[in-house]
Write a structure and sequence with these properties.
Two copies of one chain form a homodimer. By secondary structure, the first copy, chain A, is α/β, with parallel strands linked by helices. Chain A has two domains: 265 residues, Crotonobetainyl-coa:carnitine coa-transferase, domain 1 (Rossmann fold); 78 residues, no CATH class. Chain A has 16 helices and 13 strands. The first copy, chain A, has a seven-stranded mixed β-sheet, sandwiched between helices. The longest helix of chain A is centred in the middle third of the chain and has 24 residues. Chain A starts with 9 loop residues before the first strand and ends with a strand. Chains A and B meet through α1, α2, α5, α6 and β6 of A and α1, α2, α5, α6 and β6 of B.
Amino acid sequence: MIEGILAGMRVVEASAFVAAPLGGMTLAQMGADVIRIDPLGGGLDHRRWPVTADNTSLFWCGLNKCKRSVALDLASGEGRELAMALITAPGEDAGLFLTNFPPRGWLDPDALRQRRPDLIQLTLQGDRHGGSAVDYTANARIGMPFITGDPDATEPVNHVLPAWDLIAGQLVATGLLAAERHRRRTGEGQHVRLALQDVALAALGNLGFIAEARAGQVRERHGNELFGAFGRDFVCADGERVMVVGLTGKQWRSICDALAIGPAVDALGARLGLDLRREGDRFRARRELAELVRPWIAARPMSEVAQVFDQHGVCWSRYQTLAQLVNDDPECSAANPLFREFDQAGVGPVLAPGTPLTFQASLRVPAGPAPLLGQHTEEVLHELLGIDQAAFGKLIERGLVLGLAS
Amino acid sequence: MIEGILAGMRVVEASAFVAAPLGGMTLAQMGADVIRIDPLGGGLDHRRWPVTADNTSLFWCGLNKCKRSVALDLASGEGRELAMALITAPGEDAGLFLTNFPPRGWLDPDALRQRRPDLIQLTLQGDRHGGSAVDYTANARIGMPFITGDPDATEPVNHVLPAWDLIAGQLVATGLLAAERHRRRTGEGQHVRLALQDVALAALGNLGFIAEARAGQVRERHGNELFGAFGRDFVCADGERVMVVGLTGKQWRSICDALAIGPAVDALGARLGLDLRREGDRFRARRELAELVRPWIAARPMSEVAQVFDQHGVCWSRYQTLAQLVNDDPECSAANPLFREFDQAGVGPVLAPGTPLTFQASLRVPAGPAPLLGQHTEEVLHELLGIDQAAFGKLIERGLVLGLAS
């Protein structure tokens, strides 16, 4: 077994959906022992789509790889007692707890820290007041749907990628690692909080959207055009579509060289009174520049465009459908060490990613399957709480736990 | 001065654009001393849009808050020598280096580690082969544009939020913290690599998109509908638009209760032969369910919809434009402790976010301004390399450094 960079760390997780499970999985895929606790019938996300024909969730399998699964009757006091004991179990590198459930009742941080004073608990919330917010509502609130899509449209366009959840999931991992560093230096545990809505607001601020809007500058819809420089999609002679980017000076010069449009660009700049070596001026002249680029691409099949672009180091990509990506693109296959093929119980053979981080000091932890619900209940209760086989059998009989054989 | 959770850590950064600067800023906003090194005229992103009327970049200011800025003549051997000395300067909590420039020449990890054997260097690349890829090309390649937007459209719709950059930026912070933990346990430094294209591929895999496509299931364009459950946008009587989400059973019941459509939903389920308590069946019946929800919302102004929704705990949001967000939403103001107002040199008063993570064990580091280019060259060269005022004056005279007064 390959030891990851976080080998030795143990995290208990009570979670559902994207951000919190992704935070835990990020640590698991770097070698931490991440134990997800679920109710007996599975968590709120246990059947989240996409699903297989027999209703096994590809989503759940994707976001819980490399974890151990413990299933307990969390509706009962005894089941919750077991969960609290797992969360606060001893171990120098343990005592890390991640949840996106409200920090009250059995998840109350003060009560948990009475059992383990140096416990680190990270609670992911919807908004900072404890209110309900999910990726789709956070996105509607922060304005991106009104600047996405066709410039002539007036209706909002939701993103399909749950970007806020994905960003929040990584912040969860960052927050736990930062708190763990602090604990190793001071011995001090703590409650860390993160609100999805604040994640979205912070990103908007960091990218300059808030300053821009407060200055009264209205960000318009620009369709597939890159804001503030040159970049957009074009259609090749064979109907294939490519995204072409000239953000930096070097990228822009490579486009001019590949298409031999340097003199025409110079003439255009002179005519418009713009310095097209400057990214902002390229944005101002984006429509005219597109007319210089379009005919060259429209006259050639994608294969020829690709060859010339690659020869000149152009920053570009073909637009692929998901089917093209998984069927044709070698980067989305086991030829890319990010991925590994294995059998996922309930699904069959899958191609699954590990962490995209490559640490020179430790081999990449290969992507591994998600557990079956309750697959590790017995071993975890034994390892962490010393519950033996006979005692576990009684818990099974009383319906308090789900084990692999039950 | 408030000490953040990462107080004491020192990171040197040579970067541009979103992901790498965001990774460094994430650490800076948790209290690390992050020193960004730029060439004398500023980096590739120094004028990135949005900009003010006098061409100060709101983007650059947003992504470099709370850092120190050192400007050196990186085209000269002496300037690069100073940069290498800063990167490898001693200090138990130092020796962390973050870059998105190719790991060769003066950024060659082996050469740098000869100067400081326990150096941790993280290199963010476009693709894993060292090729060029940016958010816009990574996104085109992985298929999301073909499932975003109007279900009747055939053209790709680019996202406007550089989601892959934002995710990669957080992974940068996670990777540095994980490597720093490893170094504290073993003394070992290392080179860590991360490719933006792999970040996108991993996210797709984690969310189940790859398994779904490999199983031959075609993810269609669903416009503003949430996939796999109930959720979409609706228009109120006053033209305001709301996003309404019934993903979990509880969320769905709150919608039924708020609108008093429980009996109608039951009748619909019976007619269609679906169990609408199940999220997948709600997705199958999404059009019919929308027709039950639509008239109620269409008959009421947003204020009334809001009141009833909040009373019943519905998971929803108004769609806001960016202007509405910054002008009307109290969460996007200094009333939210995420934000702080201050004067940003070259810009004027700004509202800027700190880290969205709240650590109980340390006060939140307040958002602070981005530096002026070269603002800290003199103090950093003095602190880290012992270069005194006279020697610094000579560096200035020779045009090797940019200082605040130069």
